[in-house]
Amino acid sequence: MTPPPALLNFLAGIFAAAGVNLLTGAVESSSMDLNIRNVVFACLPWFGSAISLAVTATIIDRAHADANPLITPNLTAAEKRAVLGSAVERVRGRLIALGAATLILVSLGTLATLHAIPPR
Fold first, then answer.
1. Rounded distance, CA 72 to CA 77, Å?
2. Which of 117, 108, 88, 119 is nearest to 25 (CA)?
């Protein structure tokens, strides 16, 4: 099925915090070896991945909300899963695209962070 929206929002917060931590750490750093432009560009993929996960959580939440009125107490557990699965299936393409974008952005964020922070 789909991951719970709360988990996706939690991960979005972690990714946003990674970008903020990178930015504030660079600003407070006494090292003059840092290129602030590289640090700012290294933060952008982290913020982008946070946005991507938050949008994914919203889409999943909306799909669940669309399915809820159709689920009645008369339905069996299998039928309830089928109704919910049908609602999620309608947004499957967007979820896959956002998942791929998140993976790419996290990868870019990691590489950009390694490039922006010189080794000690």
1. 11
2. 117
User: What predicted TM-score, i.e. pTM, was given to this entire model?
Assistant: 0.85
Spell out the per-residue pLDDT of the chain, length 120, in tens.
789 999 999 999 999 999 999 888 777 765 656 777 888 889 999 999 999 999 999 999 999 999 988 888 888 889 988 998 999 999 999 999 999 999 999 999 999 988 887 776
Ranges of each domain in the chain: 5-116
Phi, psi angle pair for 31, to nearest 5°: -75, 130
| Residue 1, token pair as written in the block | 């099925």
* Residue whose pair of structure tokens reads 């640090």 in the numeric block: 39
Kindly state the tokens that stand for 17.
Answer: 């915090």
Q: Which residue has the tokens 């913020």?
A: 47
Beta-carbon contacts of residue 79 (< 8 Å; ≥ 6 apart):
none
Residues in contact with 22: Cβ distance below 8 Å, sequence separation at least 6, in sequence order: 39, 42, 43, 46, 113, 116, 117
Q: What is the DSSP letter of 117?
A: S
Distance CA 115, CA 30 (A): 18
